[in-house]
Amino acid sequence: MFKKILIANRGEIACRVIKTARKMNIETVAVYSDADRDAMHVKMADQAVHIGAAPVSESYLRAENIIQAALGSGAEAIHPGYGFLSENPDFVQAVEAAGLVFIGPSADAIRAMGLKDAAKALMQKAGVPVVPGYHGDMQEPGFLSAKANEIGYPVLIKARAGGGGKGMRRVDDPKQFSAALASCRSEARSSFGDDRVLLEKYILNPRHIEVQVFGDNHGNVVHLFERDCSLQRRHQKVIEEAPAPGMTDEMRVAMTSAAVKAAKAIEYSGAGTIEFIVDGADGLRADGFWFMEMNTRLQVEHPVTEAITDIDLVEWQLRIAFGEAIPLRQENIEIKGHAIEARLYAEDVPKGFLPAIGTLEKLEFPHDVRIDTGVAEKDAISPYYDPMIAKVISYGNDREQALNSLYAALQHSKIAGTVTNREFLSKLTRDQDFIDGKMDTGLIERNIEVLAAQAVHTKLDIVIVALIHNLSAKHSTTDDPFSAIRYFSLWGVQTKIVQVLMGEEINSVSLSTSDGHDFICGFDGHDIEMLRCSILENEHVLHFISYGKQNAIPFAPWKGYVAIFRDGATFTFEFPDPLERAESMGSGSGKIISPMPGLVKVLNVSSGDTVEKGQPLLVLEAMKMEHTLTAPRDGVLAEVNVKVGDQVLDGAILIAMAEEEVAA
After folding, report:
1. Which of the residues in the chain have pLDDT under 70?
2. Residues that are catalytic
3. Fewest beta carbons less than 10 Å away: which of 307, 574, 582, 590?
4. What residue ranges define each of the domains in the chain, with the CATH number in brackets?
């Protein structure tokens, strides 16, 4: 077996590979950019090599730097993880030319499946069912429009070199085709450098079901059953599970046989996934699935397959790359129980799932589920990379048990310092269609208003935060000899006013006490009796009695903020600096503020320009998705603080408008 491997990746997947390598007594070499100098995968590895600046184009996509790091560290092989260079055939060839082993398929296999149109033609020739469509070289708009008419609407326009849900447009009406084609090509050109497209019949009730396959260099191919990945937003997976709900024995045999046939057609070696689009309108049928694409790497959602088969997929990757045969025969691979994975991201769901950044001031998960992560408490979510925090994986004897376990884990996870999709995921696990197994790829979009709705804080929450602020100060380390008697009052009751900010709303709370334990709290003209409030040393939980009821509220404090965790929701409050707030209140309106970390892709204006309300000012790119920012009102632009190519942070002032003239 290999003695040392290099992992050409970062974050959660790098940590995942390190864990298996350690179990197999294989030394690991991590690579890192400037932004990842103190990252978890760097600390976990036996050795770490710096490979460049924070942007991926200057670090994790620099094949020559990674290969040199492997050679310099004495590594024998390179594990690519997923994303970055994992499906780049030129990288595979460069690794092998350097005398190293690529832990994955051959360059030829990757090329065979790299372009969707060529892959579909190959699969059709191999006898694997494919979706009706056009996958040819003719790209003239009129010709493609005619082909769409032949296929029948609705149709799906897909980037030929696409992936990750980018470069895809559904078209329901022939009148919409030209505009959708132009938009799809623009995004494909930006994301992949290739604006060629293919057309497919759009399945009205589509489910996304994929089959995990493994091949070795001895001609063997097996499958590890299926995963259902139908819960998606923007064509990106949100929750995955194995096995697929409603799967029949007949369809499983047909689908897994087709997947094995597909892998054998390209003499595949290593871990791969055959993805199928499935017509879920009338239940799962053996004649109702079609090949969509193959991912020639380990998938993000591989843990659910590991859970139901009790097989370490990374270990199999390493053994096969070393030249060993697949460890098990097909008849010895069985399904045991049910597993579900939720992808927990730093993202703002109400703002359309915009990626977010921030420091993880609190990060705590229950111990009865599997957590795959690449970050720890106090780590920062960077604007440079995918904002995944963790994968939460539950397991049960059946689907109901696994689903309940996932819901409980999400409800009891505590994350503060950045916005997340945790509450959204939690609601998704309670969606009745999902519970009943009646889901398709459009479920989230149909129910987005309910799923994206955020819990609303109460007056009591504001009072609780004010109490936490005061009681936490009581326990703070200080040289002040009078701090121990800060609540003592010679004249009885002492009253303090605490200002609490939530969003743009500032609230004043009066706290009256004579001993620092019994409080009468005033808010909005009403008193709320709070008895025996306390925070135990080294415990971030507020214990209190209100109207005879005992309560315990966990919280996370950091400079100027407190987050409380209640009923599965997280509420973050700020304690404003009066001077800073006064300054901001007097600074006027008309600021165009970045709603997310991103790259300035297009800038349409300059300082001094006169603009109208709603006029596009600039385009930000985040996670290769484009977002247009517009003028909030008519007026003149006083300052334009960015230029094309700038990387901006969430909350940065990009453009400032001149103050509006007030009529005399």
Report:
1. 163-165, 473-493, 577-589, 623-625, 650, 661-664
2. 297
3. 582
4. 4-103 (3.40.50.20), 105-131+211-218+248-336 (3.30.470.20), 132-201 (3.30.1490.20), 459-577 (3.30.700.30), 587-657 (2.40.50.100)
